Amino acid sequence: MARIVQKFGGTSVADIERIRSVAERVKAAADAGDQVCVVLSAMAGTTNRLIEWTREAAKLHDAREYDVVVSAGEQMTVGLLAMVLQDMGVNARSWLGWQVPVRTDGTHGSARIAEIQAAEIVKRLEDGQVAVVAGFQGVSPDGRITTLGRGGSDTSAVALAAALEADRCDIFTDVEGVYTADPRIVTRARKIDRITYEEMLELASQGAKVLQTRSVEIAMNHQVRVQVRSSFSQAPGTLVVDEAEIVEFEVVSGITYSSAEAKVTILAVADRPGVAAAVFGPLSDSNINVDMIVQSASADGRSADITFTVNRGDVDRALTCLEAAREELGHHSVIADDEVVKVSVIGVGMRSHAGVAKRMFTTLAERGINIQAISTSEIKISVLIDAEYTELAVRALHSAYGLDAA
Amino acid sequence: MARIVQKFGGTSVADIERIRSVAERVKAAADAGDQVCVVLSAMAGTTNRLIEWTREAAKLHDAREYDVVVSAGEQMTVGLLAMVLQDMGVNARSWLGWQVPVRTDGTHGSARIAEIQAAEIVKRLEDGQVAVVAGFQGVSPDGRITTLGRGGSDTSAVALAAALEADRCDIFTDVEGVYTADPRIVTRARKIDRITYEEMLELASQGAKVLQTRSVEIAMNHQVRVQVRSSFSQAPGTLVVDEAEIVEFEVVSGITYSSAEAKVTILAVADRPGVAAAVFGPLSDSNINVDMIVQSASADGRSADITFTVNRGDVDRALTCLEAAREELGHHSVIADDEVVKVSVIGVGMRSHAGVAKRMFTTLAERGINIQAISTSEIKISVLIDAEYTELAVRALHSAYGLDAA
Asked: Which of chain A's ends, N or C, has fewer CB atoms near its CB within 10 Å?
């Protein structure tokens, strides 16, 4: 007997028929004697329609009212699943964010969970009742509904698993688990059986869409065993666990790509101390995150070119910032380019194996792919390349690190 | 400057375009210096779709979960209206039932409002903020969402007007006000300018669909001035007020009809003391409301026929009750008939004018319409007739009491 959290996304609850399939899975676990807490998203499409309405209502909308509108989605699915479960003879009840309560900060639209008071749910789980909790939503310190931002139901599920001290948190999705690369691009990609929190965190933040980054952070901090698995099969999926639970590491676990960033290049900046601060200070003040940075001396030796990447949505604001600093920077011009992609190789094995970076650069060079910027962490190397080469680069690297399925 | 409650139904908030029209009306009142509390229904069609989902989910569903699902409708509209108002420069915020809070009893699906704690809303109204409150919903003593039943937003609006000590409660609808008869049947029906609470209560409970009965009760008990008016025009509508505010009464104010009831006749019941108790006791124990009752001696003088009406939805249960009491009643058989309609004439003037009933019976007799049952109150006479004669009876009575528009 275990205490488990089961999270189902929007495609798994898209209509009553699918909600019934979810109920059958929940019932199977409950019948087997497990204590089950279910976390649901809104029906696929519902959240998008609600967001569309808020856009029609007002261009610049109050995030507090936005949260009132979009949180209606999960409210429907939790009520419906609780009904279907009861109809199958399973003792169940729904819980909205404010009822649990899932307490968050007041950052409407992308709130962070501060605390989950789960005592009442624990008591009911122990009495054999299934809890059906609305994901994605919480309640602010002043009693208003908050939402956690896109993919927030993963975060709700993992945070609930932590608060309930659950034995496992199953994230049900429309793929079989976490793959060594996007299977739509790399046909020989393999499902990963076990992966460390650190690797999963890099995969999630470098473009793998299977888990929300924030949910992996919480899982890592609270040592929640997360399993990513398919709603449509009984296969075991991918287990995200502590390093100690993994006996042998691959050098590289996976290859990701992300088109979320754009490249900004400032040409002919005066090459003197303080220039970097003059560029990046104002960007930071405007809450614009800068990822990769390259500075190269220009031909005349008296000036430099600076290249960096920002989120695509921030490009216009970044250009405005730089324009405001033109006098101080004395630069010639600025070029923005969003025809770029960031490709990353990720693996904890990198820490003990030399030559991982060299293999990456060699592999890309052999295909004639130019590297425009590089960033690294202890377990990750990312390169920025021309977007046209995305598939070629990902497939070549997948082979080069021996990840191809037999 | 006045404090007003404005309630808009589902057709008035059916899409963003119409929500914008509502916002303009609210803004006009706020700009004129009024303190405005808006009460909204769900978008037309939304509640029906949500109810349909609950039916698909489970035949016998938990009313607590039903309330979770269907209350999502008003949640969307209040958030959207608050956004649109803010976009127009009006200070506004949304309130869900549990946020106000609107405290109800625990009768899920048809809860009664116990108390509205309106101090915070009053404070904000005085500070110039428009309150946008979700109608139809409240919160039970144990913190779960409740709904007030069909048309419950009228009740929310009037109860809020009472709690806020509002000067007026405007019920915006798709007709111009309360009419002397259903204009779809009686082309010469007239809009009523002023009507008493008592008359409105009879009109609402005898089939006029313009206001929920419960909302009129609350208005009467708390002396809330209710105005029924059109969302689509600036015409003043119908004012529902205390008798003291009306100088001259019509003898009859309006004619209504209702197809909500069915007739049950028990043939040849033993004619002895205690029989009525044996018939109506079990019905009452099963929470079946009986309206009209007629007892007539049968030909042999030793038995009687008993006819009564119940809500159509209760017919099957009523028949089961009677079957269970067959031994005690010793009756011959039971006939149920739902091809009947109840036609009522209503007016406080009846109290001081004789001959109202006589005119009704004469008018119907002249058209060859047989009266199957009669019930009366101080300001109302209802007759049960064959449903085929509905339009004929209503039109004839409308003329007979001098209600036809010139």
From this structure: C
